[in-house]
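Model the whole thing, not chain by chain.
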Amino acid sequence: MTVESVVEVSDLKVYFPGRRSSGQAKSLVRAVDGVSFAIAKGEILALVGESGCGKSTIAAAIMRLVAPTAGRIASGGVDLATVNGSALRRARRRFQMIFQDPFGSLDPRQTVYETVVEPLVIHGVPAEERRTRVLQALEFAQLLPPERLAQRYPHELSGGQRQRVAIAAAVVLRPDLVVADEPVSMLDVSARAGILSLMVDLRDRLGISYLFITHDLSVAWVLADRIAVVYLGRIVEIGSAADLVAAPRHPYTQALLEVTRGDGHRTLPGETPSAAAIPPGCRFHPRCPKYRLLNEPSQCREVDPVLTETATTLVGHQAACHFVEENP
Amino acid sequence: MTLLEIKDLCVDYTVGADSLRAVDQVSISVAAGEAVGIAGESGCGKTTLGLAVPGLLPANATPTGSVQLLGEEMIGRSEDDLNELRWTKVSFIFQGAMNALNPVHRIDRQILEPIRTHEPNTASAAAKERVSQLLELVGVSPSRARSFPHEFSGGMRQRVMIAMALACRPSLLIADEPTTALDVISQSQILSLLGDLQREQQLGLLLISHDLAAIRRTCDRVVVMYAGVVVETGPTAVILGRGTEKRTAAHPYTQALIKAHPDLAGERVLAQALPGHPPDLSIPIKGCRFYDRCSVRKSICHEVAPTLRPVAGTAHLAACHLVGGDVT
């Protein structure tokens, strides 16, 4: 590998015990079912998919908010999937997270200063350094003037400003990676653009990498360097943002693009199956337009496709479809 | 006769000693079988407007002006009278409405409820038959009529809510952000459904949404609101563009709203943020309400509130001094 990676995820699996239905064995919810990707230093990788596809669970596993069932999360010489104790604590300092809801993720009784200083206290930054670093983080987040904003409470701030506070708290420790789970989807459109350009600005100034989780392919397209499309616990397509949108190879990506563009009125039939009952073979085949168009080839029902690069796609653009050559 | 005729509607909220005009002199009409979209960001008054039609405003809100539904004045009517009209003439689907279903009742019973209330003479067998038809209409298999809400996904529950809203054959359906809480594929399915119903059942549809793409694809006309007033109105295809038709939004706010969301058909660049916030409506505003955030403002804009004026023809209107050659 030529570029330094901030994190390398390989064959990550996160399974949860499902409900026991009468007379049947306990089911297994395969929320994340074998996912691999790497994020380079200063890179923005977007995970795009619908709710329940496992994209937030991937994020939670990287932050070790849930324990991975299998796989490796390699970063800084340790495997975050298995480390514990002080090694995990040190690793957590390098990875920070921002959440969707800027109204729920801030403590209403804490001032902006108290919220942003907390990570410094937890990670033992000397008391005399803290104030300078908090004010600098607020400035990075364009909460100006920082001295005044520091004294505010969340209820005095707009949604966009609250999300900036969450970003300031995430970058105050100068992390290598920020995991952002739908950070703009609860904001008004006019506030969204500001948050997205702030994230890019911090990448440029501080070299922060992002794992950006979104259901909105068009936002991923303008923000991210690369996009990974997630369906039912698996990456079904990954590639550079421009390439993936210009020449999508997987039928699911093609369908997502079509509804996002909003010009076609065709939509996929049915709903995403439960992660406790993933279809055999290609997990997308029951809803796949290509499968029907090709008269239901048995391969799709029997063989689980792997991500493959093809002669017609650019390097690094991979799709998990048996008929990828026939998906222009 | 126009299905819905809103004329010079104002809604004032009283909070303690303060008063705030959330909707200010708004006039909108919806013909039978027509779909009209109300666009704008949170706090622009679009939900208040929607609530005023079926008389569902909270107790501290005072509507003035006129709201005529099928020729009958809705403002100042008694609660009993309004109850007669709700469900039978006008139905309302809320944002997150799928969570409004009662979790302990099977869905057939919940769809039956408005029929039993408003048409008590309907025979039990006929009412059950109608429930089956309604479920079929919204794309839910009638065999699932005995299910509980938790057995359905969000998209399916929203379909059930639509079935319920149509149970007593209303002429007007008001849908407030009906797809905001749903995934893109489900969103697309629900919007197609609403469009089909509106065409096939000659249903009037008032779609309230911050999502311009949803409005573009579903509505014949669009009304853009900002800080309680209508700033632009006209055919959706003209203002937002559709197919090969180029968009010709005239108001700087509408233009900013359109630009704030990345367009997969356009350039791959981060959107320009719209600086500032909507004005505080508890303080009287002399000139244009968008003045503080407008990039093309002139001195007259600070002094005189612009009224709606023709942009092209009589159908496309905008409230901006720079439209129609007053100011150059």
